[in-house]
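@channel sequence for tomorrow's demo:
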Amino acid sequence: MASRDGNYNNRNQNSGRGSRGGGQNGGRGFGGGGQNAGRGSGGGGQGSGRGSGGGGRNAEPPPMPMASPLMGKKKKPFLGMAAPLGYVPGLGRGATGFTTRSDIGPARDANDPVDDRHAPPGQRTVGDKMKKNQEDDEEDLNDTNYDEFNGYAGSLFSSGPYEKDDEEADAIYAALDKRMDERRKERRELREKDEIEKYRMERPKIQQQFSDLKRKLSGMSDEEWLSIPEVGDARNKRQRNPRYEKLTPVPDSFFSKHLTTGDKHTTVDPLQGLNLPGGLESPYPGGMTPGLMTPGTGELDMRKIGQARNTLMDMRLSQVSDSVSGQTVVDPKGYLTDLNSMIPTHGGDISDIKKARLLLKSVRETNPHHPPAWIASARLEEVTGKLQVARNLIMKGTEMCPKSEDVWLEAARLQPGDTAKAVVAQAVRHLPGSVRIYIRAAELETDVRAKKRVLRKALENVSKSVRLWKTAVELEEPEDARIMLSRAVECCPTSVELWLALARLETYENARRVLNKARENIPTDRHIWITAAKLEEANGNTQMVEKIIDRAITSLRANGVEINREQWIQDAEECDKAGSVATCQAVIRAVIGIGIEEEDCKHTWMEDAESCVSHGALECARAIYAHALQMFPSKKSVWLRAAYFEKNHGTRESLEALLQRAVAHCPKAEVLWLMGAKSKWLAEDVPAARSILALLRGPSVILGTPVAGAY
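structure tokens (generated this afternoon):
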């Protein structure tokens, strides 16, 4: 007790931070003191420990603590356990402190576990994560990651800076990829479209499957319609058998309350209003009558408003009646019925039409020289059934916008026949160079001679219009049309349609001269060359067709025209449908190999042939197969496709001639031999079929002279 009593409530030299203890080198304990005292809450003395009851030199044992009601409580099981990873004391209640450099401590060891206790293997320590980050930054340039064709799997310069040269290179590669994707874009889209149509034909929709049955419904009689049974109710039980609504009687207090407040009235006293001639009593108060009991609550009574409306209607009907003779100008009984039977000719809400009318009026007043505002206003009135208002508005628009072609055309459309002609004549005076107005003026004329007169007057003012020339030529006879076209090509030398129309009306020699002049004026159009080839074929000069098409390709390329393979194939299909077989075959042979890689030729040509067959251009498909067989004479698949084409669309002679060439180039293709034997057998030439099969069994005979009737 000497040590504790001597140092209690004292502060000696080098005393610690304890709240009461003191002595030389005193510790931080609550009550300890003395030389080198520890941090214990009750001990003191030299070399004392950190325990709560340890004593120093000559120290007596601490007194036994007094019994406390908290001593009997059970100790919490987590008090002796280590804190979980990442646990910060006081963080949950916001007691976060600050950290200084002295509190950070040493760096974490590489073998220390990471904070994530559920990390996968290879990432559970600090060293593993550092190693993974270093590996991500470095490129894997091992030989196992190298391919002879593609090189390294990753980019060799991904860690380097992205400069302007890299951006330019990426843009070039992106442009190349886009160009490669657009090369066959049209064909791919057409093929996808054809596949979708074919799929729709094979698997039509339900509405298409029942379309024929729906058309048959138009022939059903009324009795058959009425005899159709009702559709069964497929709803669930709760919807089929809804519970009846429970109604509760309204108490009398509710009615009495509303009668006293004046919200609603169920009866009207006749003495409260004026007795009018129509037989109805006015519900609103008179001069000497008290009127309805409305205490002025400020609420609207809809019943009174409805009664007032009916009363006003009755007053107006009574006023229009003739009191002297007893005859009525308007039938009061049928007036409301007539109003109900009136069906508006426009769709939409009245309020929307009013809003649109106000909006367009504001636009017209703000910018009166804006033609679309006048056109929209006139069409709005036309839709609502006010045709005369629409005509007045559009005529006002012609005054405000006299140089607007659309306003004049709309005015001519809204006006009746003779008035429309006058409007068009007025429009021509304001717009003498408008082609559309001249066309409209010709359409308003019913006589052909009047139409010709209008169009010739128009051509005097607008001689460069191709549309006017075409419309005028369509009304003329062939001889007059030829004369007019000769003048038209002088006024419009760059119109291909006019040149071709003139060539069709001329003789053979004159047509050749016309087409030569057309090529001089328009050296970049392919249709002129194709028409020249068709002209030579039509006149029996087929040996010139191939030369003309070859010269066309050369001339167009010299003038900087890109040869579009798909467009030329479409032109060949049109020639095939028009009967120009030599021209279509010459076009196919000239353009079939343009713009195609060598490894894609076979596949592309087979697709082209199938496309021509689907479009009905059989001669084009035959020319494509012939060119493919010439380029791939040893391909059995090409011979088979050509044979199937001749079998389905050709003659027996053409099929047998093709098969004879096929077995000469592919002697080991048994299918071709069997097709030839079957063709002979179907033609009832059994000996020839047997001879072909005999040649198939003895391949050594193939190179010799075949049996008569066989290949």
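heads up for whoever presents: The first helix runs from residue 2 to 7.
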